[in-house]
Amino acid sequence: MAKRNKPPMDYGAEVKRLRAEGPQRVYILRGDEDYLRESYLAELRALCVPEGTEAFNYHRLQGPGLDVGRLRESAEAMPFMGERTFTEVRDFDPSKTSGYDPEGLKSLLKDVPEWATVAFVYSQGMNPDGKFGAVQTMRKVGLDLEFTSPGESALVKWIAGRAKRLDKTVDPATAQYLMATCGKGMNTLSQELAKLAHYAKGTAITRADIDAVVTRAPDATIRRMLIALGEGKYDDAAELMADLLADKNEPPQKQIASVSGQFRQMYVTKVAMESGRGDSYITACIPELTGWYGDIARLKRTVSRYSLDRLARAVSLCAACDYAMKDTGGDAETLMKELILRLAMDKV
């Protein structure tokens, strides 16, 4: 099923709202854009607990194994040398909570003191489980904020601004190339820009600089491998596959999901191009590409190397490989290598 097409959060508007209205009593801070999530958390914490009062009024609790009694003590503690208290709860999971008392926790959430703020913060890939009554109450009484990527144009501007603070420049096309190389996560982009600023000899950061020092995201390596397969450069494809398999943080099961996903996107793009349906058809089928014009342009360049029939067979081969990994118990690396071999042999 395609991902739901949800517009990106207007981070600037949320920060303005926070500063204008002041802190609320309960927050849920979640979403995969951890740079923005942590930036908002820092802003919220600073409003609640001014510098110098943290030792008295700031409490941090770990969600897994959380003792609800400690949460109650933190939330109900009176402020000292300040006007508010701030309790930060990381990755709260009711199924792992010590002495979980649904009614007691719901009662606490509904009656957080006016001087207190409790923020439930969720790491990348985690979300509060809505089947629990306490989570339903959190969402009912609190402000639920999902931090998503700000979108292509906003990220391009952000990259340029970040580079400027490092006394460098990045033009829009190079910013697009940087995102295609290392991914769109703002923490990762920030780290890679720091490396580039140190490495680049000139004022402008170039593609050559990016190729020299930036750590490629697995999806970028897979994209290069599929391009190599399309161009008949099988030695290059094999070398790129070896790089993927050497990355122990990305198991073959995850890599095949990415290969399958990219081939499905390529198939949709090829259908759109050959039928004259345009970008609107692509984004209707793949909503997560809405607004990401650079990604669509890269897809169009990549599929020019493949026929529609070959892409259809590639999608089928990927599905068979994925099934074999999950249900036959075959060696994942061997199955991945066999998949690349079959994709290379299918040249028409």
Textual characterization of the structure:
This protein has 348 residues and is of the alpha/beta class. The protein folds into 3 domains: 136 residues, P-loop containing nucleotide triphosphate hydrolases (Rossmann fold, 3-Layer(aba) Sandwich), CATH 3.40.50; 62 residues, Helicase, Ruva Protein, domain 3, CATH 1.10.8.60; 128 residues, Up-down Bundle (Zinc Finger, Delta Prime, domain 3), CATH 1.20.272. Helices cover 59% and strands 7% of the residues. The chain has a 5-stranded parallel β-sheet, sandwiched between helices. Helix 5 runs parallel beside helix 6 and helix 16 packs antiparallel against helix 17. The longest helix has 24 residues. The two termini are 29 Å apart. The model has no long low-confidence stretch (mean pLDDT 90).
Using only C-alpha atoms, the radius of gyration works out to 24 Å
Strands, count: 5
Give the helix tally. 17
Instruction: Name the overall outline.
Output: globular
The second-level CATH architecture of the largest domain is 3-Layer(aba) Sandwich
Supply the CATH superfamily name of the largest domain: P-loop containing nucleotide triphosphate hydrolases
Provide the low-confidence segments as ranges.
none
Helix content: 55-70%
Number of domains: 3
Q: Calculate the mean pLDDT score and round it.
A: 90
Instruction: Find the CATH topology of the largest domain.
Output: Rossmann fold
β-sheet strand percentage: 5-15%
Structural class: alpha/beta
Major β-sheet strand ordering: 2-3-4-1-5
The run of helices and strands is HEHHEHEHEHEHHHHHHHHHHH
Q: Largest beta sheet, briefly?
A: 5 strands, parallel
CATH class of the largest domain: Alpha Beta
